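Work package 3, deliverable 3.1, input record:
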Amino acid sequence: MIELKNITKIYDLNINNKVTALNDINLKFNEGELIVLKGSSGSGKSTILSLVAALSKPTMGEVIVDNKRISKLPDNFASLYRRENIGFIFQKYNLIPTLSVKENILLPLVPNNPNEDECNSKLNIVLEQFNISNKKDTIVKNLSGGEQQRVAISRALINNPKIIIADEPTANLDEKLSLDFIDMLRQLKSQNKTIVVATHDPLFFNLDFVDKVIEIKNGNII
Amino acid sequence: MLLSPEVLTLQILNIIFLVFVTVSLFLSIRIFFKWDINATTKEQYKLEKQSFLAATIIKYILAIKLPLFLFFIFTLDKLSISLTGAMCAAGVVDATQFGTYLFILKIINIYLFGFWLIIHNIDIKNEKLPYTKIKFGFFIFIFFIFITEVIVEYLMFDAINIDQMVSCCGTLYSSSATSLISNIFILDTKILLVLFYGLFMSLFISYKFKLQYIFSISNFLFLIISIVSLISFFGTYIYELPTHHCPFCFLQKEYYYVGYFIYTLLFIGTFFGFVASGTNPTDKNIEKYYKISIIFSFLYLVLVSAYPIIFYIKNGVWL
């Protein structure tokens, strides 16, 4: 379970310029739920994602995941938490263009220093799940947008995380590819993953398998 | 002030350190008084960021200060060339009224700085940062000793007068001298050696049976007796001269800088001995500290014992 309690996040750009991204918000997501955060750019959606992923700390309040106060974790423990629990899908995929599909997907495993057999078995599972086995050795920059998205999802899942966070995942995809992505989300939801998606794509708002749609505006929940 | 490149280096480093430890002091005071790891307030989150910054600054300064002690001795050794009468660092230490106090203070500080680094290391390995308040409180205490060291070091270098003749180590560390050091030679060599090897046995037994209190006392006594026996007995075999007892000369090139190795082994061994003595018996790291202490103390014992044994094998007599 993910819980955000009395969260306020203020970005100090300089002494005279402070931006309140989140203003005393409270949220609760249960295990296995798919939550869509909707709102315009700058509303605070991505800030919520970064707090849940322990990529940043709140100015006030706390984030609790599975009874662990992750907003209070020192940086080295926060990294460990991310590595073990979070799969992140970015808007622009954030793949390394000069590496192959296989190398990109395996990157999150590097800190764990696994053996080759373990790497291959995990790799084959995600490659088959997302139909990119035939592109395994292709350099990522030579792939289409949809294929790159699938590589990004495979990379997010290689560590078998409990929580998947997606930040504007369909912003760079056409409608067909967006629908493909939604299908993949359905698959992940059936595996009891907790999924938090930040988007302003209307395709997500009326899906039958979405548990909650939360609208954020100017750092507040509507 | 005698401004050799080494003295300049030490003084410049001291100025840099002073700036950073002063910044860290202000942060440490705030953290020490306001730290509450359970709080989710704006102030606590700010303190958590500041504690990371302050601890990083302190960690690097103290970690640099440890090997800098060896550089300090090296500097004194080099300065001895410029002082009439001085043959090694001993003459420079004795050249001013500050030298001996500074030297003792520096040795104490090595242990204090090391303790801070150990506390910090244990603290950041626990996600609840249980020793943050203690380590910053300890730093506030260390700060004042640190400042004292810097001031006395400046005063010592400033007080060195190259026109004044100083005593050489042969005079300072002689059984006929009237100084405090000459009391070392009152102890009979056989008793000293029994104490030295007996204390190591005590260290080993208290380690085996995890007798923390005895380990702590044995460790302290081992440090004292090691230095005394080094001056009184083992040193003479390093020099192969029965009347030469200087604890500094074997830091020189003629003796392959073996002194640095000897003192490093002794300080590391006894330091981790003190750490093991002060560690909670349930802490999983305690065994590691015990082992490091015993291994380094044993290596020290082997190294200093090797000199008289090799001398006897080569010459068939004891000094």
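Chain A touches chain B at residues 5-6, 8, 57-62, 71-77 (CB under 8 Å).
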